[in-house]
Amino acid sequence: MSLTIRVEVVSAEAEIYSGEATLVVATGEVGELGITPRHAPLITRLKPGKVVVTQPDGEKVDIAVTSGGILEVQPQVVTVLADTAIRSENIDEEAAQRAKKEAEDALANRTDALEVAEAQAKLAEAITQLQALERLRKTLKH
C-alpha cells in the first residue's frame, strides 16, 4: 500500500476536493510546489494557477485556483484555502473567454490604477481557467 496524505481544497464558496493523495502540485508565489506524504510542514501563499491532486489510483484531479490563496502542509493533511477555485471539468469556457476579452478591453482603455489592478486580476482569473481547460483536454486525449 502506498503512502497517502489527506487533501482538502476549499474556497469561500464551496469544498472543491476532499480525499487522499500521493502527490499535490500547487502554484506558489515563487514557483510550483510538489507535496508528498511526510513533507515538512509549511505555509505559503498561492498565486492564480493550478492545483493537481494525484489520487492513490493514479487519477489526477485538476483544480484551477483563480484568485490565489494559502497552502498549508501539516504532517497528515494538506489544506488549500483558495479565494476562488473550480475543478477544471466545471469551467464554462465561453464565460472564461468573455471575461478574458472584457479584461483585455478594460486594460486597453484604462483610466486609473484601481481599474488596471481589477482588470489584471480578472485577466489572470480567466487565463487560469482557460489553461486548466487546456490541461484537461490534453489529459482526456491520452
Strand content: 35-45%
The CATH superfamily label of the largest domain reads F0F1 ATP synthase delta/epsilon subunit, N-terminal
Domains (count)? 2
Low-confidence runs of at least 5 consecutive residues: none
CATH architecture label of the largest domain = Sandwich
Reported by name, the CATH topology of the largest domain is ATP Synthase, domain 1
Structural class: alpha+beta
Please report the total strand number as a whole number. Answer: 9
CATH class of the largest domain: Mainly Beta
Number of helices: 2
The overall pLDDT average reads 82
Give the CA-based shape.
Answer: globular
Query: Compute the gyration radius: what is it?
Result: 16 Å
Head-to-tail CA distance between termini: 26 Å
Outline the fold blueprint:
Blueprint: E1 5-11, E2 15-21, E3 23-28, E4 31-35, E5 42-54, E6 60-65, E7 69-73, E8 77-82, E9 85-87, H1 93-108, H2 113-141
Parallel strand pairs: 1-8
Antiparallel strand pairs: 1-2, 3-4, 3-5, 5-6, 5-7, 6-9, 7-8
Question: Mind explaining what this structure looks like?
Answer:
The chain is built from two helices and nine strands. The chain is of the alpha+beta class and 142 residues long. Strands 1, 2, 3, 4, 5, 6, 7, 8 and 9 form a nine-stranded mixed sheet that branches. A hairpin with a 2-residue loop joins strand 3 (23-28) and strand 4.
Descriptive labels:
ATP Synthase, domain 1, 32% helix, 9 strands, nine-stranded mixed β-sheet
What's a concise summary of this model?
The chain has 142 residues and is α+β, with helices and mostly antiparallel strands.
